[in-house]
Amino acid sequence: MKIERNDATADLSAQIATAIRDAIVSGQLPVDERLPSEAELAEEFQVSRSTVREALKRLAAQSLIRTQRGAFGGAFINRIAFEDAYGQHVTTSTLLLSMNAVSFDVACEARFAMERACAPFAVKRRTADHLATMRAEIQKQSQPGLSDESWCASDVAFHRAFVDSAGNPVISYQLAGSVEAMQPLMNMITFTARNREKIILLHTEIANYLDLGNPGAVEKILIKLSDYTKTLAYDVIAAKDKEKRA
Prior knowledge:
71% of the residues lie in helices and 3% in strands. The chain has helices at residues 12-26, 38-45, 49-61, 82-99, 104-116, 119-125, 128-141, 148-164, 169-190, 196-212, 215-245, and strands at 65-68, 74-77. Strands 1-2 form a two-stranded antiparallel sheet. A hairpin with a 5-residue loop joins strand 1 and strand 2.
């Protein structure tokens, strides 16, 4: 493992963390293998132990390594589960949407297109637990007096269960960004105008057709939900523009 030392302003701890991360990704450092000690890494990279310690903190923050105490302790290469990476993925997706001013149309198109792609897999692989989770969220959404915040959280949980029912961890990971980052954005724009009963009906139809094993019908309902969501957004945006001009 090597780092560039030509730039005096370079952050050496970041370079070391990158070098170790690259070695993990390439397989040079296998999962569960113990990293060299801080002293050994300091000698290898020709830096202080405090610089190595900072690099290891960066790697631990990314869940790439774990530390163990005791005689056989040290830093070990971590095996990252897809679920462990959801949070960082959602955060990155949320930042990308907000910083790049992604339009509602673009976000909505991407999110529902990817979600519709789950339908054939979900029909084949959904379990009783997936359906039970979806129906539980529908029941929660039907509760009178449910706050907007709780309703939005239930909406996300419903679609999360649908995505997970596809039984493909790679798809679930990729869609975590669109469902859990884009859905709150959509809810935030449309919550004042939406008809909860209509959305609950669409959610119920998705769960029912999923249970019946009809992927085409599931896709059609998702298209209806997408169209309704976009219509709500257009109405809300138009109303706000009218207020500004008044």
